[in-house]
Amino acid sequence: MQGGKGGAMGFGRSKAKMMNEVKGKVTFNDVAGVEEAKEEVEEVVEFLKDPRKFSRLGGKIPRGCLLVGPPGTGKTLLARAIAGEAGVPFFTISGSDFVEMFVGVGASRVRDMFEQGKKHSPCIIFIDEIDAVGRSRGAGLGGGNDEREQTLNQLLVEMDGFDTNEGVIIIAATNRPDVLDPALLRPGRFDRQVVVSNPDLIGREKILKVHAKKISMAPDVNLRTVARGTPGFSGADLANLVNEAALLAARKNKRIVTYQEFEEAKDKVMMGSERRSMVMSEEEKKLTAYHEAGHAIVTINEKAAYPIHKATIIPRGRALGMVMQLPERDEVSQTREQLHAQMAIAMGGRVAEEIIFGDDKVTTGAASDIEQATKRARAMVMRAGLSKEMGPVAYGENEEEVFLGRSVARQQNMSEETARKVDSEIRKFVDMGYERARKVLTEKIDDLHKLAKALLTYETLTGAEIEDLINKNIYPKNKEDLKVEDDDQSSALGSMGLKPKIVH
After folding, report:
1. Do 214 and 252 contact (CB within 8 A), yes or no?
2. Is the pLDDT of residue 470 over 50?
3. Would you report the helix, strand and coil content of the chain in percent, each value rounded to 5?
4. What percent of the chain lies above the pLDDT cut of 90?
5. In this structure, what DSSP letter does residue 46 have?
6. 150-154, 352-356, 489-493: which range is least confident on average?
7. Which residues contact 498 (CB under 8 A, 6 or more apart)?
């Protein structure tokens, strides 16, 4: 019976670790780009440092604070900063640490954790990934003892039950607030929900500055420019970008990291690593060049499209080539015209293959483009209410998540007739994109040939080089003259969205 610390009876003890960071201590100065969230949690620290300032007016110290946001936005980092700043005992535990192989252990650990908290009051307990233990109750199949529900019930009682825990503040983090039990989210348990979202342009620049302090950077690197070229990046993505740039510079035996490394790192993070060793036949290269040129020509001629950042026929990640677009500014929502333009761009590759090589020679390279166009059309019809025929109604609400912790059965909330109409509208939207792409590429066939030849020669072209080539007939500088024959080529990618989705 020597099982672990405390023998067999040690299972019910909490696995919460007390943080005692002297080395590698994180403070609020290390947290950037999430100013509103930082203000909210700074207030919690102020409560702990000077409770009388707030209680003088009758205010109570908040019981709990739930950090909500997508992965990589800095929720755990914020919690570490609170631990570094608060000057009170800070316990940390993961949601999955509560439930073990034995029945009743989870609830016992919750009780033990709060007992420890009371002994060290005032203190902070941080539960990372609370959705592991806080999912909605009543979703289990069959009878029997549900260990996770029992653990959650104990957590609810400890946070706000008969025996209140004054001075024990709970901070929890999750990127799945939709699956949490409503009883857990109410005021008195989690008094405030702090949304930690992806940073905007100014936030991204601040985050880059924090990470750039740790590397030897050339003085001419403009981090505002890097921030502008990374819309949709989270804090973790930006940290990875700076690290990749430093690794690339080290590989080249450079003493400092220049802007060139940042550009290369950005392409690597967004589009995947180059696979120059991949052997492609001349026919495949030609097909890929025309495929990518098709995407690019449609992008240039669609007014609502984002500007082209880069086009390449060098295989990257899982794609044979790609055209990457970057929005000029951060965007929260998209217009109907933008969505139709994106579907036309997605179809540009397949249409270019058909025009140049004929129907018999089209490849599977456009599979991911077609998938993206179909998903976009489905979202427009079923969720965004952008179909005039179907009206502003949401269809098929339960189709995305099979099991959210609330409903097990997938309810079909459409009649067969409506489902047929939805399918018809989705097909109509995709066909519209296809026809728009065909119209553009038929009219601009000379530009298609010109760009495909340039891609075959240079392999990679920037947006500015493509614009100069098409509009001014200026070929890229410092690159040899064009010496290529006619024709085209295909990719595994549809090159759309803030961060390209790469599919076979």
Report:
1. no
2. yes
3. 50, 10, 40
4. 25
5. H
6. 489-493
7. 231, 232, 326, 327
Give the tokens for residue 234: 């989270």
Residues pairing with 308 in the sheet: 325
Q: What is the pLDDT of residue 165?
A: 62
pLDDT of 15: 66
Neighbours of 364 (CB within 10 A): 10
DSSP assignments along 277-334, one per residue: T----HHHHHHHHHHHHHHHHHHHH-TTSPPEEEEE-S-BTTBS-EEEE--SS--S--
Shortest CA distance to 382 belongs to which of 401, 366, 397?
397
What residues are paired with 493 via a beta bridge? 502
Q: Is residue 112 within 8 Å of 13, Cβ to Cβ?
A: yes
The residue with tokens 């252990």 is 105
Name the token pair of 242.
Answer: 């700076």
DSSP-derived 3-state class of residue 3: coil
AA letter at 445:
I
pLDDT in tens, 387-430: 888 889 888 765 544 444 444 444 456 788 888 999 999 999 99
Give the whole-angstrom CA distance, residue 241 versus residue 253: 19
* Cα separations in angstroms, 377 against 33, 46, 390: 33, 49, 13
Which residue in 350, 314, 387, 388 sits closest to 488, CA to CA? 350
CB-count exposure of residue 482 (10 Å: 0-12, 13-18, 19+):
middle
CA 309, 314, 316, 321 torsion-angle sign: positive
User: Which ranges in 444-500 belong to alpha helices (H)?
Assistant: 445-458, 463-467
More confident site: 124 or 25: 124
Q: Which residues pair with 462 in a beta bridge?
A: 310
Q: Active-site residues: which are they?
A: 292
Q: What is the pTM of this model?
A: 0.77
- State the number of CA atoms in the 13 A half-sphere of 360 facing the CB: 0
CA dist 8 and 266 (Å) reads 52
More confident residue, 194 or 332: 194
Phi–psi pair at 56, nearest 5 degrees: -60, -35
- Collapsing DSSP to helix, strand or coil, 72 comes out as coil
In sequence order, the 6+-apart residues with CB closer than 8 A to the CB of 390 are 381, 421, 422, 425
